[in-house]
Amino acid sequence: MLAFLKHFIAYSRETDHGHDSYNISKHDLFETYLAQYKIAFSQGDASAAGVMCSYPAENGHPSCANHYLLNDILRGLWGRTDAVAVTDCGAVSNLREYPVSAPDDATAAAMALNNGTDIELGSTLFVTSLRQAVERNLTSAAIVKAVARRALLSHFRAGRFDPLDNNFSYSRLGGESMNTTLHEAVSLDAALQSLVLLKNDGGMLPLKLGVKLAVPEPMASALEGLLPNYAGNDRDANTCMTAGVPTYDCMTTIADALAFVNTGGETSRAPGVAVNDANSSGIAAALDLARAADFIVLALGIDRTIEYEGVDRVDTALPGLQESFAQQVLALGKPTVLSSSWLSTTCCMDQRPLWRPSAQP
């Protein structure tokens, strides 16, 4: 397995990624933006294998055509001559526009190649225009060979070219090798290790079993909303797919999981509020349910209607009525658990941070 780090570097804004240019001092560059990458590339055999360069430009030079970042620092100063640089989707074609405005595809392809990029994703300028770039002396065959060597070397290291009779050869891996019991155990362990307990006032956690537990929406019954981008389908197509369409009913909801472990108790759910609308009709029933419970588990968050690959949020606020609903639940004075990821105080059944400083669990 090879680890590639993204996005290298200065991936700060949520809009117009491909055409920003940030003015970054050398002090800020090394102290803020590069320090963590340097650590990851200085771990011997456990070091990262490469980077995915980001969309923006630093001081006028796009990350995926930035000789100083990719060649002088990564492969020069840090000594990682074998480090592979792969673009984010469409980053090479973005070079046709601001801030460098390459006049044609061949120039854009040569610009990326000459300045350190090895593999292009999301556009095809390397495939369609590199030959022309060499013929026009915009780049050279020697640079193309060096890039090909670096890119292919990573495939060799990952085992892609192992002999067919090798027990660990990629050619021996089929569908049965996906989502195995071992994989599930590793995924569960990784998920458990990723949890961070920010507060546990009064030793509320772990929750007592056999209690009256309220689990109001919006995320208590979510299925697809629990998945991040690029989540694959379950191996059992009969339970997770209907006519080729994912149904996600092979998954367990938060409320169902809590009901399963709350042996001898009563676990109830109520609509509460949706992820992102102004419909407050379910709030009264949810508050009644919460008021009658011994404990409340409040799972707020976002789903793919709010953010997904290619569509980013411009702030970290909880959408819809979730903020006000959380305040009303907390005002009941009942022992309440709010799930949290990253630095959230109310939060999120999602891998992305949500921050609402006014909510105090």
TrEMBL record:
What's a Gene Ontology MF term here? alpha-L-arabinofuranosidase activity
Protein name listed in UniProt: Beta-glucosidase
**Keywords in alphabetical order:** Glycosidase, Hydrolase, Signal
Write out the similarity annotation: Belongs to the glycosyl hydrolase 3 family.
Q: Which organism is it from?
A: Polarella glacialis (Dinoflagellate)
**The Glycoside hydrolase family 3 N-terminal domain covers which part of the protein?**
1-149
Q: Does the keyword Transmembrane helix apply?
A: no
GO process terms (BP)? arabinan catabolic process; xylan catabolic process
Identify the residues that the record assigns to the Glycoside hydrolase family 3 C-terminal domain, covering every copy.
195-338
